[in-house]
Structures are given as C-alpha cells and as structure tokens.
Amino acid sequence: MRLRDFVIAATLLSTTPTFAQSDDLPDDYLTPAFHAGRRDSLRALMPANSVTVVWAFPTRNFSNDVDYVYHQNPDMYYFSGYKEPHSMLLVFKEPQTAADGSTFKELLFVQKRNAQAEQWTGKRMGVEGAKQKLGFTHVFNGEDFKGTNIDFSKFDKIILDRLPTDIADARYDNADLFDLIQQLKEKAQITDNYAQDKRFGTTLFRQYTGQLREIKTEEELSLLRKAVEISCQGQAEVMKAVKPDMSEREVQGLHEFVHKKYGAEYVGYPSIVGAGNNGCVLHYQENEKLHVENKMVLMDVGAEYHGYTADVTRTVPTNGKFTAEQKAIYELVYEAQEAAFRLCKEGTTWQELDKVSRGLIADGMVKLGIISKKEDVNKYYPHGLGHHIGLDVHDRSASSKLKKGMVITIEPGIYIPENSPCDKKWWGIAVRIEDDLLIKEKDYELLSWAAPRKISDIEKTVAEKSPLDNFVLPKLKSARKGF
Ligand code: GLY
Ligand code: MN
Ligand code: MN
C-alpha cells in the first residue's frame, strides 16, 4: 500500500490501538545508566552557566513517499539512547527550576505518539516511554518546545554543533526537526548556522564530544568487540566462498548476510567491494562488476552493532593464490601495518605512526621500481594511516596522541591504477589491510584477529570449503542471454 492510501486506511481505525512490537529482542543494549553517565561526563566538562543542545538527524527521502531507513545522530544516541527522529536534548550545567518547582538537569523533546503513524512506520517511544525506558524525568513532546519559556539569554555559553540547514519542513506537523531548530534559533537568537563565536560554542561542542567519545567505556567496548568480530567472521566466510565468477555485489551480499546472521542492524558505511582496478577507488560503492575474475578483491566492510561500527579491510586473490606482483605489494603493506602496530600504545602520536609506515612503503616501492623517489609515495598511498572508530566509522576525537581506551584503525594501502607511470605488470593492483585496535597503556589489543591477514592464512582460508558453496539459486527466466 502506498502512502497516499494512508488517509483511507486511517479512517478505518475507529479506536487507537497500540501497534506492539516484538519483545523478543537482544539483551545487550546500552543501559539508561550508561547514557546518564555520558551526560554527567559532558556536564563535568561544560563551563559554568552553560547549556548543551543536541538534536536528532533529519529523515532523508529515498523515493517518492519512501524514506531511507532512519539512522540517529550518534551524539543524540550517545547522550540519550533515543533513536527516533524529530527530537532534541538540552543538557544544563546547573540544575534548573521548572514552573511547578521541580528541578531538572536535562530536557528531552520527543516525537509525539500517533497510532495512525505508528501503524505505518512502527512504534514510537513517546513521553512516557522515554521516562520509563531511558530514565529521563523531564520529557515533552516536540510541540511543547514552542511554549517553553527557557531564557537562553541568561547562559554564558550555548554549546551546540553546526545547525543543519537542509531539513525539510513536514508542515502537517508543527513539531518536526525543522520547527525545533527554527524555534531554537528564535529563542536563543542564533543567526549564524556555522556559529563559531564565543557564545555559541560550535568548537566547544566538537571538543567536548571528541574528548568523551574518543575513550570507550567498558559497555561501548563490548559492543565494538562484537561489531568487529562479526565483521571478521564475514571476512573469513567470504574468503572461503569467493569464486572468480561471482559479482562484486554478490560478494557484498555474502558479507552483509553474515552480519545479519549475527544480529548486526546495519553496515557502518556503504560496503566497498572492488575487484582488480576497482580497488583503487578508495571508497568505491557501486560494486557493479559482474565477475571478480582471477583478480584480487578488496573488501572494506564493517558491521554496525547497536550503533557501534567496525571497519575491516581484507584484500584476497579470488582464486586462492597471490601472483608474484600481488604478493610483493601485499607484503609491503603488511610490513607497514606491522611496523605501525608495534608503536601502538599510550602516548604515540598519529604523526609517528604515519611516518614509520609511510616510510616503509616508500622505500619498498622505490626498491620495486614503481617510483623513483620516495616523495612520490603519496600518489599510490593517498590516504591517512587510520582513524578512530565507534558510533561513527570516522569517529569523533580530540587528541593527537593515542590514549588507553581508544579504538582505532591501522590501514595502510597501495593502489596502482591502470595506465600508471610504471611497469604494466603492477597495473590494477590495489591492496588495503585494515585492522581495528584497542589502545592499552603499554601496547594494544588486536580486535580484528578473527579475519585472516597473513598471506599463508589467506591462501589457506580461500582454499577451504564454505557452507555458502552450495547456495545455488535457479537461473532467472527474465535474464538476458549470456547472463
Ligand atoms: N571504510 C572507510 C575507511 O576505511 O575509512
Ligand atoms: Mn577506515
Ligand atoms: Mn575501511
């Protein structure tokens, strides 16, 4: 049924039923205590007489009357646990007093419950749900924000991220994200969406959320470990299943099938599956090549579990054997990664890590005769060595040095596109090896241990049988000849 049939269907509902959803759910979600703890930590960083404002991400249109699957703003999720759109959170440094004399440290504005909408797009938590399930004391429907008389002029600092300018006004609803932002701008007299001045501390928002989110708590770590392990099982299973006649999209589907089998809700970023020369496109997402052929396939795929995403890349020969050239490039990237691993501990800077691994790749490429001077290395290694992961695949951070409790990727790579100015035996070779590490005081823990990484382990794994080998579907009747 299409949305324009909604009005007719809605009139058939004579009562207001609740569209209950299953309570057969995982038992490892972040708890209200976790989110409350994050708000307390934020408050501890905030200056006197300040308020932080966090809002939901906008919904995004996919097609006509269909939206993309909604994904919450990681900051909103981190500080509240609320996963629905059209919502806003205010965190105050000092307790505030309401008209009824009660005191509060935070206000949450949520989507109003609506039985008809809930029949179409699922259950909403509503005010009562947010109180019971998330532990907030002062929760209101979005429409109530307009009538609140919060005096924003009394705060020395209003701490917020850049205001979104590309939000649609739903119009039928006076309390969508568009309205919340408009009302906030009016109430707090914000005239600049990129507000960087002292009062509207955009930079402070990034600084505080970076400081908090770059260090993972035990609860976050257990979800990240799971996301990474799921992704690695995907890599290992796909290595066993991959065949030269598979398409890039089929390989993508196998990864994502394994993710779902283990309960991951999303991928943390569009899956990158590039065979041969396609691997040279760093964030290749078309995955449209019909056959991966006897090439190497670069698979950068990360499962997102309860909001936390892995980021793991493996590059494997689809026929199970590295050629001499593929091996030479792979070994160089592997050595660069190992050299960076050895430096991973509290206190190391990203610069130090990058210098040693990039230097090794540069030396090696000169030796192989692919470049003549070391400075040319960036032509074939055009990205940084790594980044933090967490609620975002490129996660928020504030420090240039590694600290205990950070989770980062180490992902050197070499990409030699066709027609590069080197011997053509190197053309179309692209290798990235990407692993996820927990930084400890004196060393690190390799979270992505379960995905084969050494050449010998990869060759052994590709040769193994897979339960997916027997997954043969009938030929489509509608397929064009030859497909
Ligand atoms: N998957 C994107 C990246 O490696 O940064
Ligand atoms: Mn990455
Ligand atoms: Mn990646």
Structure description:
The chain is α+β, with helices and mostly antiparallel strands and 483 residues long. The protein folds into two domains: 183 residues, 3-Layer(aba) Sandwich (Creatine Amidinohydrolase, Chain A, domain 1), CATH 3.40.350.10; 253 residues, Creatine Amidinohydrolase (Alpha-Beta Complex), CATH 3.90.230.10. The chain has 13 helices and 18 strands. The longest helix has 24 residues. The protein is globular.
DSSP helix count?
A: 13
CATH homologous superfamily assignment of the largest domain: Creatinase/methionine aminopeptidase superfamily
- Under the CATH scheme, the architecture of the largest domain is Alpha-Beta Complex
**Shape, principal axes of CA atoms:** globular
CATH topology of the largest domain, anyone? Answer: Creatine Amidinohydrolase
- Can you tell me the residue ranges where pLDDT is under 50 for at least 5 consecutive residues? 1-15
Helix/strand structural class: alpha+beta
Write down how many β-strands occur, each being a DSSP E stretch of 2 or more residues.
18
Provide the domain count.
2
Gyration radius (Cα, Å) is: 25 Å
Name of the CATH first level of the largest domain = Alpha Beta
Helix content: 25-40%
Ligand roster? glycine, manganese (II) ion
- Rounded average pLDDT: 93
- Major sheet characteristics: 5 strands, mixed
